[in-house]
Write a structure and sequence with these properties.
Helices cover 34% and strands 14% of the residues. It is an alpha/beta fold.
Length: 175
């Protein structure tokens, strides 16, 4: 079994990209300043990096799974163009009140529940006690805590600078 490594969990909309309500296409994509640099810095430290994102727009027929995958492909290419990568993307298309019956359900993967984070920890050798999440909503932080990792609320600015502050705070015992 591979040695355990710390993991950085990143919400997508509002953390990696500007949240325009529903980011349904590549045309809606706008990088948060420092997002690619943030991932590159943590990968250089030999951390695992995961994207964990609620995508309820699918459940409400604002866009399709194929649209989401196209946006994710665009994001992956942007990371690659910057010389870095994420280890995996976990997305939850479900919502209990969705209009699309295929995606209308209460899912353990939908934040504030911890399913996506726990799945990543089951599939990769994550050192839980050294890992944390950066999100832009309290539901992100609640999911992090439910999964047993730290959580930091990002409210804007450069993500790489915020992540460095979060890492220093986390190492000092703040969660």
């Amino acid at each position: 079994m591979a040695a355990q490594r710390p993991a950085l969990f990143l919400d997508r909309d509002g953390v990696i990209n500007v949240d325009h309500g529903f980011v349904a296409s590549v045309d809606d994509w706008q990088w948060i300043d420092g997002a690619r640099e943030c991932v590159a810095r943590f990968k250089a430290r030999d951390w695992l990096v995961f994207v964990v994102t609620n995508q309820s727009g699918i459940a409400f027929d604002h866009y399709t799974e194929a649209d989401m995958h196209a946006v994710h492909a665009h994001m992956i290419k942007g990371f690659s163009d910057a010389g870095t990568e994420v280890d995996a993307i976990y997305a939850c298309p479900y919502h209990a009140d969705g209009t699309n019956s295929r995606f209308r359900k209460d899912s353990f993967d939908r934040k504030p529940k911890p399913g996506m984070l726990l799945q990543a920890m089951a599939e990769f050798p994550v050192k839980r006690e050294s890992s944390f999440l950066i999100g832009d909503k309290q539901t992100d932080i609640d999911a992090a805590h439910a999964a047993g990792v730290g959580g930091f609320l990002f409210s804007g600015g450069r993500l790489d600078d915020f992540a460095e502050w979060a890492l220093a705070s986390f190492e000092d015992g703040s969660r």
